[in-house]
Amino acid sequence: MSALFTLHEGASPLILSFPHSGTRIPEDIAQNLTPAGRAVADTDWHVPRLYAFARALDVTWIEAKLSRYVIDLNRAPDGAPLYPGQQTTSLCPHESFTGEPLWQQGRAPDEAETARRLQRYFTPYHDALTAQIDRVKARHGYAILYDCHSIRGTIPRLFDGALPVLNLGTNSGRSCDGGLQNAVETQMAQHPFSQVSNGRFTGGWITRHYGRPEAHVHALQMEIAQHAYMDEAPPWRWDAQKAARLQQALRAIVKTVLDWPARPA
Ligand SMILES: [Zn+2]
After folding, report:
1. Cα-to-centroid distance, 118 and ligand 1 (Å)
2. Is residue 132 part of a domain?
3. What's the whole-model pTM score?
């Protein structure tokens, strides 16, 4: 069992990835954080719990245990900004979503430390994800990667106004087959939640890097506004009643993805 992530191999064509739901921080790194950093407020809270139903659907599951403050698994390893020209967090973030410093004075990760974290924490997750995509594709002729996220619904520093509850990202149609995107959008529209495709969140580095529909690898990102299933303030309380309603939609969406009739050439 890896200290960095949980991996479960399933027999279906679907892989669920949870790059931001971990909260652990190795002690040598944690000692440099500010109290705001140690609070890991920008975690994609409870997202694996939200998708727990999918374990019974024989999906492959890869879930990060470490916090995105150690290194962000959904950013380009060369440090390229995700949304050029817009406020966005980086590979080894220095500030929280609201702009609070994460690191004590003089203790923010420099280039050498970033390189160390890439090798030690970033690469193993992506090596495992790549191996799973290859395994699933060898078995089915195609693979679908569904990257699972959530974020507070209002963060003025990062985006204007309130985020819809369901935010589908497909790198503006480039990371998956158009028929799959249509099927998911049709399913999303059956549920009473605000929603958008390729709005503020078009898919992070994972979606963009792995989504290669021409090579029969289809990637989707689902970003969820946290108020739809939890309190958006410490202690980040799970709301069972709201979560159950949201899970009905997510279950239907995941089933739609599983049922999508991919026909590789
Ligand atoms: Zn996320």
Report:
1. 18
2. yes
3. 0.96
